[in-house]
Design brief:
single chain; alpha/beta; Rossmann fold; 2 domains; six-stranded parallel β-sheet; three-stranded parallel β-sheet; 40% helix; binds NADPH dihydro-nicotinamide-adenine-dinucleotide phosphate; one-carbon metabolism; EC 3.5.4.9; multifunctional enzyme; THF_DH/CycHdrlase; purine biosynthesis
Length: 297
């Protein structure tokens, strides 16, 4: 018998994108400003091509300008750095995203840290990580990585005040696990970060009122790891084959977890759609900040 409430990220993200589109119209009408997002894709990775197409489409749907820069797989690090520099200096571009992964011969840290931190809508620049970790506010508030930002929005919408709750984040990557933990800490949760060397992971997860799974292992978090009534955010996107057909599953065994959780995000339709919506939100924030305008809520 399933009991958990489904946290509908598809619906939430559609509402968020609607609000962003309204705000873009206001910026155009009142300030003659159209936010612009530049996405750089190096190489022909099929999954990256799908993501980039989808980002471009949703950027245009929100009324923003979308600039796609496709570069061949042989592009050198210097050439990519020159492209980033060109976009840093382009006033029509308010947000820059270099689609990861880049080919092995390019140092992704060097590329990310070459992006103007105020245009770093992925929030991966070391200055933005530092601003997030130190709780910087106002003019020096960080650009927050999109997937954790979308996840915390869903949590706050579902639970309201998160203060005092016990949260376990499984995964410590720079793009999901660590910034997610920072956001939960900012909401005054008691936060544990688990990873591949964590001992007795099931027992650690069982302590949590909030579980965020960002591991990249299909259905690894089992139903009986979930404390009764806990809220589960499944960040994982894993393609597996079932009966010869491709299927998308998360990092949580959803059907089992629903027997224990109070609420859970589905895969697909949970965190996934929030990521692009938050990319658009960050682009809007970046455009407003760069023009000295009040930031949208
Ligand atoms: P990474 O591979 O960078 O990080 C995975 C983390 O999981 C690591 O910290 C690793 O630990 C930990 N881990 C691996 N195996 C285990 C294990 N057996 N027990 C406990 N911890 C383990 O992945 P990402 O953070 O980039 O992505 C995580 C998942 O989220 C993936 O499924 C990815 O597809 C998905 N994702 C979804 C997005 C969305 O839009 N919804 C966006 C980005 C990612 P260690 O550090 O010790 O190696």
């Amino acid at each position: 018998m399933s009991t958990a409430t489904i946290i509908d990220g598809k619906k939430f993200s559609a509402t968020l994108r609607g609000r962003i589109a309204e705000e873009v119209t206001r910026l155009k009408n009142d300030h003659n400003l159209t936010p612009g997002l530049a996405v750089v894709l190096v190489g022909e990775d099929p999954a990256s091509q799908v993501y980039v197409r989808s980002k471009g489409k949703q950027t245009l749907e929100a009324g923003m300008n979308s600039y796609e820069h496709k570069m061949p797989a042989e592009t050198t690090q210097e050439e990519l750095l020159a492209k980033v520099e060109e976009l840093n200096n382009d006033p029509a571009v308010h947000g820059i995203l270099v689609q990861l992964p880049v080919p092995d011969h390019i140092d992704d840290h060097a590329i990310i840290n070459a992006i103007d931190p105020n245009k770093d809508v992925d929030g991966f620049h070391v200055i933005n990580s530092g601003r997030l970790a130190t709780g910087a506010r106002g003019a020096s508030a960080p650009m927050i990585p999109c997937t954790p930002l979308g996840s915390i929005m869903l949590l706050k919408d579902h639970l309201g005040d998160l203060s005092g709750k016990t949260a376990v984040v499984v995964g410590r990557s720079n793009i999901v696990g660590k910034p997610m933990a920072q956001l939960l800490l900012q909401e005054s949760c008691t936060v544990t970060i688990a990873h591949s060397r964590t001992k007795d992971l099931a027992d650690v997860v069982r302590q949590a009122d909030i579980v965020v799974a960002a591991v990249g292992r299909p259905e690894m978090v089992k139903g009986d790891w979930i404390k009764p009534g806990a809220t589960v955010i499944d960040v994982g996107i894993n393609r597996i084959e079932v009966d010869g057909k491709n299927k998308l599953v998360g990092d949580v065994a959803t059907a089992e977890a629903m027997e224990h959780a109070g609420a859970i995000t589905p895969v697909p339709g949970g965190v996934g759609p929030m990521t692009i919506a938050c990319l658009l939100a960050n682009t809007l924030t970046a455009a407003s900040r760069q023009n000295g305008l009040e930031e949208p809520n």
